[in-house]
Each structure stands twice: as structure tokens, then as C-alpha cells.
Amino acid sequence: TYQLLVAVIELTGLAAKSYGLFPTVPTGQALGWSPASLWSPIRPVLKFSLSIAFTSSVWVMVTQTDKLLLSKLLLLADYGYFTLAVLAASGVMMISGPVSGALLPRMARLQAEGNEAGLISLYRNATQMVAVIAMPACMMLVFFAEQVLWVWTGDAQATEQAGPVLRLYALGNGFLAIAAFPYYLQFAKGDLKLHLIGSAFFVVLLIPLLILATMRYGVIGAGLAWLASNVIYFSVWVPKVHRRFVEGLHIQWLWRDIGVIVLPTVIGAALVHSVVNWPQERICL
């Protein structure tokens, strides 16, 4: 009930603001309610809009199906530890996600202007920025999962049980944060065909793998399935998207825009993990 109330308030506020920003329509030019007048303005972008709606639905399925399935496959206690780990791992996506709100309109504008060089430059620079922001957070959760959970919860059992799952989901989310960039490129190009196919491929890959791994290895299997699905998608589908839209981009993007940032981050986190003697108390004065 509370969430419904918030959604209604949000919709009302957005509608009021949107109508306030609309330009004044001259007399006689207002759209009527005939089928022709309703459909003609949106027909040119209908296919693209439906593609976005479909991929958004698939994304909801991807992010929620594991929880739905695992609520049936795991014991309640294990499901609680799994939920705790997934919640902590979502911090990686919360850091990188807002970039798309600023990036997509700018990329679409450069594409509309025919500025291909500017589009690719922005794409690569944004990739580097997200890698700089998200990868240290990802590596923190990968190498120091137990310490993060201990500081957060103060529950030794939860830390022990959820730590390995957090490590796997955080690493999977790290791949996902970078793998989102080809979608931004497709959005700017106005062609989401490959994204539709890739999203369907990801779902078909994830769900059976998730069920089989969870039935065999429990909550750790769920984390392994999430990580494996994201690694396969990143390794197989992202290069295909790059080849389709910008020939020769992928290797430069992978090594110069991601590798030079991720590799030092991984090495640094590994060194800190092996050298630092962490205190056993949550608060060290």
C-alpha cells in the first residue's frame, strides 16, 4: 500500500511538471482523439519504444527471477543470507547506474549530428569513468566481503554465510556494469535489435544455469551462476555488438579503456588483502 501511494504521488508530480513544460499549442492545432491523430506522431518511434519496453521487462526478469526461484530452492535461512549478499553487491550497480541518465541523451545528440568521432570518444571516456568509480568498489567487495559484512551487520554467522556469495555477485555486477555500455551505443544508434537478442540470450543462459547450480551447490551455486552468465555475456555478446556498430573498437575499448584501470585495481586490492592485518572489532579506535 505504501509503495502504491508513493508511485501515485510520483506519477502525479511528473505529470504536473511535464504538462507545465509543454509549449502552448496554438488554437486549432491541438490533437484530437481520432486514431489517425493519436498514432501518427508516435508511429516513427513506435518500434524503438517497444524495443525499450521489452528490454526493460527482460531486465526486470533478469534481476528478479533469481530471487523468485531461489525462494523455492533454498532454505529460508540460506535465502536470507543470499538476499543480504545480493543487497550489498548491488552497491556496484548503484554507483555506475546513474551515469546512463547523463550519457544516453548526449550520445544520441552526437549521433543525430553525425559526429561519429565525438560519439565514440564520449563512449570510451564514459567507460573509463565508470571503470574508475565502480571497479574499486567491486574489488572492495570481492577481496573484503567478510570485512564489509562484519562492519555492516555485526553478525558473525551472517558474515560467514553471506561473504562467499557477496564475492561472486559483486564480481558478476562488475562485469555487468561494464557490459551495459554496448546498450548505450545501440540506444544512441537507434538500433536495439542486437540488444533484444542479447537480452533473450542472457535470460536463456541464466535461468537453467541458476536452477542447476543452486540444486547442486546451494547458495554458492547461485552466485556462481550469476558470475558465469555475466562473464559469458561479456565475452561473447559485447564483442559482437562492437563489431556490428564500430569495426575495430572492441580491442581498444577492452584493453585501453578497461584493462589499464581494472588490472592495477585488482593487483592493488590483492596486495592490500594479503598484507593488511585486519582488526577483529567493528570499530577500531
What key attributes describe this structure?
mainly alpha, single chain, globular, 285 residues, 0% strand
Description of the structure:
It is a single chain. By secondary structure, this protein is mainly alpha-helical. Helices cover 84% and strands 0% of the residues. It contains 13 helices and no strands. Helix 4 (76-89) crosses helix 9 and helix 7 (116-143) packs antiparallel against helix 9 (156-179). The longest helix has 31 residues, at 43-73. The radius of gyration is 22 Å and the shape is globular.
Q: Tally the helices: what do you get?
A: 13
What Rg do the Cα atoms give?
A: 22 Å
Please state the structural category: mainly alpha
- Helix fraction bin: over 70%
Shape, principal axes of CA atoms: globular
Q: Estimate what percentage of residues fall within beta strands.
A: under 5%
Q: Please provide the count of β strands.
A: 0
Note the run of SSEs as H and E: HHHHHHHHHHHHH
Low-confidence stretches: none
The average pLDDT value, as a whole number, equals 88
- CA(first)-CA(last) distance: 44 Å
The largest sheet is: none
